[in-house]
Amino acid sequence: MRPLSLHYRYEIEDSDRIAIREILESTGFFYEFEIVIAEELFDERKAKGDSSGYFFVFAMDGDKAVSYSCYGPIACTRQSYDLFWIGTHADYRGKGVGKQILKETNKQVFDRGGRYLYAETSGRDQYAPTHQFYKSTGFDLEGRLRDFYDTGDDKLIYRLDLTK
Question: Structural domains in the chain?
Fold first, then answer.
């Protein structure tokens, strides 16, 4: 594969709905109903713009979206944001793309006045690379909700202080 020269895009395009599905399906981590929810966030953003509370960052390799994040402010907080989704196409994993898009997402959140970024994920063993990703990018494990998603499937809550 040629060296990556990524650039970022922040406004959604109609083709992004398909790209989001392709990125998430390629990872092998998400159930179909979860991918549908990711698509619904795209639809909400398309319909309502900024007032939806959903913001996107797309990492582009040429004209192809290879990674994306979706984030937004947490209701009833002043400086806290949720990282709703972050995903990198399987063909681009292990090349630092996820860390790059997260860094750009952190910048966007901070520029919007965010101080803290929260990420939630499954506690299943399958998600060990995800847990390591968050730890390696400065997130701290703040909480565990036992059997949240299903029996034996805890919800892990990570927090990143963007001022550090």
Answer: 6-161 (3.40.630.30)
4-14 pLDDT, tens digit each:
789 999 999 99
Paired sense of beta strands 80-88 and 55-61, if any: unpaired
Distance separating alpha carbons of residues 94 and 85, to the nearest angstrom = 18
Residue 3: band (very low, low, confident or very high) from pLDDT cuts 50, 70, 90: low
130-139 own/partner pairs: CB under 8 Å, 24+ apart? 130/29, 131/156, 133/98, 133/99, 134/158, 136/99, 137/99, 137/102, 137/103, 138/164
Q: Please give the Cα distance from 5 to 131 (Å, whole number).
A: 27
User: Quick check: pTM over 0.85?
Assistant: yes
With contact defined as beta carbons under 8 Å apart, do 52 and 44 qualify? yes
